[in-house]
Each structure stands twice: as structure tokens, then as C-alpha cells.
């Protein structure tokens, strides 16, 4: 009975701490929205971001207008502007040493939360910065491995495992993810990248949003 009550008190404490952390995060990022259950540390946001329920994030940068759906985990990553990240996505899950006798980190890491460890130094990197460009759509349950760079405008199909860099405006899918096709023609992709529309002002975006319906209207608007 005592242990049951202790567990209840502990859960209340952690829930209260979590709510206070999100409240402080909301105060620091007034144009953004943070939903309950998320655990966010060492992360900087732009404007108009939305982080949905139960998202876990650490050591990240998030550009304007990008959102992350529920139950996703994002570690050591830079996310550009206008990115759409679906639920249950994993970005930068971490790495294990594979050329030793064991893959278990107790033999190779000292800086680890594991209860017991044998190594007195860190012998390898467990995380490499992952870079997500602008206007990238990552589908549900996709896995983006550490150190991968995803180009602006790319689409990652749901359930994909991305182990290699993805070019701008490419659509990839599968396990491991492979190129399916490009969203636009090569000259159109060059024009889109050159335009850097994601860096335009809010006023410009509001005034020209109707041109975003297709590539022809957008490129004509740029002329």
C-alpha cells in the first residue's frame, strides 16, 4: 500500500514538473503551441511551430512553421522551415558500436545513463547531427538515421527507413528508402531552390499564397 501511494506521488510530481516545463517553453515561444506530454530539452524554436502530444526532443533547432505530430522522437537534429513531421517518426535514434565484440554500450561509453558501465572513457560517438531541409514532409513511422541530410522539398514515405542522404525534391520510400521519383523537373527544382521562398516575409507569403497551388503558377509569379 505504501509503495502504491509513493508511486502516485511520484507520478504527480513528474506530471507537475512536465507541465511547468511546457508552460515556461510556451512563455519563451509565444507564437508556438506545445501540447501536453511532450518532453523537450536543449531545443530552440522559430515562429509558429506546433509540437503535439508526447513528443520527445533534445538538442534540436526547429525553423518557422514546422510541426511535429504526436509520439515522435527527435534527437540532435536541425529542422528547416515549413516541415511537416507525422506521428511516430524517429529522427536521430542514436548509434551502437558494431565492430567490437559486443554492441552493448557499457563496454564503450562512460557518459551514459546506464546503471552499470565498465568503460572509463567514451570510445565512439552515439549521435551525429541530422539535417532536415525546408518544406520536407516525413510520413508516419518513418525512421531517419543519424547523420542523414534530407534536402529541401523532399518527401519521405510512411514507414521508410532512411539511411542515406536524400536530394532536394526527391520522393523516397521503402526499407531502406530508395528514390521513387522527383516532384518536379530539374529546371523547376533549380528555380525553387534559387527562390528560397521559405525565407520570404510573412507579408509576402500571405500576398502570394494562391500561387502555391502548382509549379506553373508559382514560377510565373516569380518572373
Could you outline the blueprint of secondary structure elements for this entry?
Blueprint: H1 2-28, E1 33-34, E2 39-41, E3 44-45, E4 50-51, E5 56-58, E6 61-62, E7 67-68, E8 73-75, E9 77-79, E10 84-85, E11 90-91, E12 130-132, E13 137-138, E14 143-144, E15 149-150, E16 155-156, E17 161-162, E18 170-173, E19 178-182, H2 186-195, H3 202-208, H4 215-222
Parallel strand pairs: 1-4, 2-5, 3-6, 4-7, 5-8, 6-9, 7-10, 8-11, 9-12, 10-13, 11-14, 12-15, 13-16, 14-17, 16-18
Antiparallel strand pairs: 18-19
List keywords for this structure.
223 residues; alpha/beta; eight-stranded mixed beta sheet; 4 helices; 19 strands; 23% helix; globular
Explain what the structure shows.
With 223 residues, this protein is α/β, with parallel strands linked by helices. Among the domains are: 93-126, no CATH class; 186-223, no CATH class. The chain contains four helices and 19 strands. The strands form three sheets. An eight-stranded mixed β-sheet has the order 1-4-7-10-13-16-18-19. It has a six-stranded parallel β-sheet with strand order 2-5-8-11-14-17. The longest helix has 27 residues, at 2-28. Residues 1-19 have low confidence and may be disordered.
